[in-house]
Write a structure and sequence with these properties.
Layout: E1 3-7, E2 10-12, H1 17-31, E3 35-40, E4 42-44, H2 47-52, E5 54-57, H3 66-80, E6 87-90, E7 99-101, H4 107-113, H5 116-120, H6 123-138, E8 141-144, H7 147-156, E9 164-166, H8 184-190, E10 198-203, H9 212-218, E11 226-231, E12 241-245, H10 250-256, E13 259-262, H11 271-278, E14 283-286, E15 301-304, H12 308-319, H13 325-330, H14 337-348
Parallel strand pairs: 1-3, 1-6, 2-4, 3-5, 6-7, 7-8, 8-9, 10-11, 10-13, 11-12, 13-14, 14-15
Length: 351
């Protein structure tokens, strides 16, 4: 039985998008009879799953600072020197992985979007860029979750392009599905909205990168019946904009939304975009969202170039259309976790 180690400072359900992503991979590998070890400082699984995992704790808390990331890498290498395993799958910038999965934004692209002066004044940017480069160059194979990541690698790291492959990540279709739309009117009424209200939905924690400010700027230029629901951010609500913070049952908001809008300035592949489509909700996302490759203009949504006028026009276009929830779902129904993990196994078994 092959033993696969998964690495990321936090791995588990309810800890974040990339963290839940890694957790789904762990569960699927167990189902496929692999031995699974996890090197992390925090995990979150059901007790049944956790008993089946081999957990190697790293005693560094947090993930935010560069120092913590470096200390995590040092401790992880110490653990690796003492245990036996067949393959390493890393879900963050860890040098020496068999598979390096691009869960996080490509830092080289983020740096390009920042002002040159700001870049020169921040040593942490240089450190993170160096970690990214080491992880990419040392990995035996690199997995991009969507084609955008592969395209960006070709621009910023052409030397490693030949070892980049796309494995489309999965979606939880039990939780997110077009049947939710059958309760749309009930959910709207329960949350105090009128039937004639046209609900836009934004979901995201990193609101600056994901373009919330751009969406807020155009709200005054949209019809008065347009309301914006913001999940993931606290703020001061008014009669048209509602800050909901972190919510447990986000699927209810996808269900009652008329349109999901994510004008992101960069997302390797926004899970929220896919969740919206799976829930039968049309999407407006940006050219810098990896999941935009699944958007068929006027069929399940639109793609914006992030100019204010373009975003406003795309929303107004969407308001005039009657999108079919089943068609939205059909556009991404092949993105299952089983297909994704089979793709990972295919690549790792050929190393």
């Amino acid at each position: 039985m092959k033993k696969i180690l998964l690495l990321r400072p936090k791995i588990g359900f309810g800890l974040g998008g990339a963290e839940s992503h890694a957790a789904e991979v762990a569960v699927k590998l167990l189902e496929k009879d692999f031995k699974v070890g996890i090197i992390a400082n925090k995990i979150s699984f059901s007790s049944e799953i956790q008993r089946s995992l081999e957990f190697y704790p790293v005693k560094i808390k947090g993930f935010g600072s560069v120092v913590k990331q470096i200390l995590f890498i040092i401790q992880a290498n110490q653990i690796l020197s003492k245990i036996k395993y067949d393959y390493i799958i890393s879900f963050f910038r860890f040098p020496g992985a068999d598979l390096f999965i691009l869960c996080d934004p490509l830092f080289a692209f983020l740096v390009k979007q920042k002002k040159p002066l700001l870049w020169n004044l921040r040593p942490r940017y240089k450190i993170l860029l160096n970690l990214e480069k080491k992880a990419l160059f040392s990995a035996k194979k690199i997995i991009s979750l969507f084609n955008l990541g592969k395209e960006l690698i070709s621009q910023f790291y052409p030397q490693v392009f030949q070892k980049v492959f796309v494995c489309y990540r999965g979606i939880d279709f039990k939780r997110f599905n077009p049947q939710l739309k059958e309760k749309k009117k009930i959910f709207k009424k329960n949350f105090g909205f009128k039937e004639e209200d046209y609900l836009l939905l934004f979901v995201g924690f990193d609101i600056k990168r994901k373009g919330l400010n751009l969406l807020l700027e155009i709200m005054p230029n949209l019809p008065k019946n347009v309301k914006l629901l913001i999940v993931g951010k606290h703020g001061i609500s008014n009669e048209r904009i509602f800050y909901l913070g972190k919510v447990k049952e986000v699927e209810k908001f996808y269900a009652m939304a008329d349109l999901f809008v994510l004008p992101t300035f960069y997302d390797p592949g926004a899970m929220s975009t896919l969740e919206a489509l799976a829930s039968g909700t049309p999407v407006i996302t940006s050219i810098y969202d990896g999941t935009s490759e699944f958007i068929k203009e006027g069929i399940n949504g639109y793609v914006t170039n992030l100019k204010k006028e373009d975003l406003k026009d795309k929303i107004l276009k969407a308001m005039k259309k009657d999108f079919d929830p089943q068609i939205c779902y059909n556009s991404i129904k092949h993105l299952t976790w089983d297909n994704y993990v089979e793709c990972l196994i295919h690549h790792i078994s050929r190393i």
